[in-house]
Structure formats: C-alpha cells, structure tokens
Write a structure and sequence with these properties.
single chain; 110 residues; mainly alpha; 74% helix; 0% strand
Length: 110
C-alpha cells in the first residue's frame, strides 16, 4: 500500500521489517517468494531488487544476485542516484563476476 501511495521510504522500512521478522521466526522460505512477487509488481524499485539479491546471495545463488544488483544499479543510474548506483556496483564487484573489470570501469566513471 505504501508503494501505491508513493510513500517509498515507509514502504522500504516495512518490507525490511517484515523480512527481518520472517528470518527471525525461521520462516526464511517465505521471504524469497514474497520479494519475488514485490519485484514483479514493482519492477522499478531498486530497493526490492537489492533485498531479493541479498536473499539470493545468502543462499549461494550468486548469479541471480548479480542479475538483480545489475538491474538495481541501472535503475539508480537512470534515476540520477549516482551514490546509490556506486554502492550497488561496489557490491557487484565484491561478488567477483566475470566482467568485474567492466564494473570497475563503470564505477570509475560515476
């Protein structure tokens, strides 16, 4: 509802709290489908892609995490959020993708 109302920060806080709550109650298996649905419903929300990437990464699904982080970084760059995009690109580089040099070059150009 917060996303629909344009209350993005509040929506992100609530999503983060819900994820934390599920993980704390050992209901981790519910987190990924929840975030996948949100990403499907709100594909322009970089925060959701990053949150899902975190979950994928924690399960060893590095390629899925990289794909989502790349998408999130692109969304942030297109929105003019250079600092946010730089943070995402740094996260990508830490995961050591095959094209890490391309990401380092992009980071240097931001």
């Amino acid at each position: 509802l917060n996303f629909r109302l344009g209350e993005n920060h509040q929506a992100e806080v609530r999503v983060g709290n819900f994820i934390t709550s599920l993980n704390a109650r050992d209901r981790r298996e519910e987190v990924i489908p929840f975030l996948e649905k949100l990403c499907e419903d709100w594909p322009q929300r970089a925060y959701l892609k990053q949150a899902l990437a975190d979950q994928y990464q924690s399960l060893g699904r590095t390629q899925d995490a990289l794909r989502l982080l790349d998408e999130a970084g692109e969304l942030l760059l297109n929105a003019g959020d250079r600092a946010g995009a730089a943070e995402v690109i740094q996260r990508i580089i830490v995961l050591n993708p095959n094209e890490a040099d391309r990401y380092r070059q992009l980071l240097g150009n931001i």
